Every structure is written in structure tokens, then in C-alpha cells.
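Example record used in the benchmark description.
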Amino acid sequence: MGLLFFHLHAATSLAKWDKIPDSLFIGEIFPVTIKFFIPGLTAEDQIPITFENGLNLQVRYAGEPLQIVDGYAVKKIFFKVTGMPAKLPDILFSFEEIQQRLTGLPLQVKQLNAPENFCQVLAKRLEIKEFDSVQYDSTSNLVLMRIVGLYANLEDFKLPFAKLQKIKETNESFPVTDILYYAILPSHFSQLRFSYFDPDTREFKLVSIPIIVKDEIVSTQSDINPTEDKSRYTKIGIFAFLGILFLLYGIWKRGYLWIFIAVIMLGYAGYLLIPAKKVCVKKGSKIYILPTKQSTIFKINRKQNSFFKLNEANGYIKIMLPDKKIGWVRKDDICKN
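Model output (C-alpha cells):
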């Protein structure tokens, strides 16, 4: 599971688990404490530590500073429960000629009996910091939000009633995590309501925010998928298939009109296969998630750059960034030359 370095010094060494939770839930982020007793401890010494044989656990954070309390070197490590059954890993550590293994312990893990609107997140606190919503099509709305959680497994965030959803960006400065998330919801939803579980209070907490849809419309041609332009590939497939079909039919019937139509269709499919051209974007330009006036800004172009142009809509240019993410810039932010 990885390698850590504790600042310790010893002639002999002892270690024991301390402060292990009585019961846990799948998805929960929790701390355990390991106590190391080493006579003659100094902060300058180091001891390597490895994790082995853990079960359904993920090391979430091991960067807390070591503390010396009553002769013990106390280290707090945070794990995430990923399934059941679960077991703490064996801890292997060595110093000079001393080697020792602290055997991992089994954990009591339960499955949550969650309500239907549970978002799969367990957190001490969860808040929506930014929220935006626009009409996606005649039956759906697109919502975007930045969610911030404390000791939260936000990477698992999922709304059970969304037609389509994706976490676009994740940032963590433990114990705080934030995600930029979008979802396509049925248009009859006037409020976004979901629940998360607070392990401290052992209860589900409701999050609710009104969905106020702006007049702007983001059609399916906007393609919010962050990696590819689906509508373009669909068109290529349709025109190529019909072109080949008409060509074979024209050859069989010796119908020049069918062959002419087939050539046009195949030519258009070939045209769509031509790589997208690049556009120059000015330094300091804002890159938006959507081509709308009030859209969330997710990046600033720090220097003049050229990006692949994918589409145009509502006075905005759709571009692909080097990391394959999709964004929109205003036409006014395109370089003149």
C-alpha cells in the first residue's frame, strides 16, 4: 500500500494499534492511531514503514505529523473502507538491526440502510458551494455544482435519479475535498434533494437547493462529454453507411443518380474525418463549462495558446484542452491573427 517515513530513534522497539473504531460503514473515512515506543527517540532519525495484507481498505491520508507523547511516537493514519469484510493491514517497520511486524486487525463493517435519494457519500460535513442550471433539451435540465466535503468520499458521489452524470474535476487538501459535478435531470424537478450520511451523528442529512432554470438552452449538440464529440462520430457513421449502401445499389442497378448521391455522402463523411482546426485563445481568457452567460469558470488561460476547435454556439467557441477536457471561450477572446 505504500511507503512512509516516521522520524524515530531506537535500540528496541514496540508498536501497538490504538483508538480503532468499534464499527464502520462502507465508504467511511476513519482514523487509526499507531503507538511506537522507542527509547532514546530523536526527531532526526527515520524508520521506513510498509503496509501489507490489508483487506478492503484504502490508505486515504498518512501525512499527519508524528507526535511524541509520554515516550510514544504516535502516528495517525486515515483509511477508507471500500468493502466488507475489512481488515487493517500488517505494519512492517525496521530501524538499524531491528525489524518488527504489527499484525493487522479485523474491523466491524456494516452496510448502510440508505434512503432512495442517498448520494453514496459519507462525510462529517457536505455543502454545495456553487450551483448553476440551464435547460438541456425539452425534457431535461443540466445542473452543475461544486460540492465541498469534510472527511468525505466525494469521488463516489452519485445521484440515483440522474439521466447522465459525471465528476468533471476533483481537488483534495485533506481533510477537505471538492468536486465539480454535472448531471442531466428530468425537467419536472423543481428542487435538487439528496442525502448523505454523517458517521459522527449516525444519521442521514438532507441537502436541498432550488433548481432555477435560465432561459439559455444547451442543446445536445453542445456535447458536455469531456473527451469526445459524439454527434460528429454519429454523423460519420450514418453518412458512411448510407453512402456505401447507395453506391452498391447504384452499381447493381447501373443508376448514375444513386452513385452520385453515394459519392456526396461518402465525401461528406470524409470531410467530417478531417482533424479539427486550431484556434488561438488570448492570454487571460476565461474558459467556461457551458456556452452561457452565467456559466461556471473552471480555468483561466494563463498564456496565449492554440486549442482544437470543436464547435460554435451562442457566441462561444468550443475547444479541447491538452488534457482532453472540454471548455468554451467567448469569440471575443479568440486572437485576431
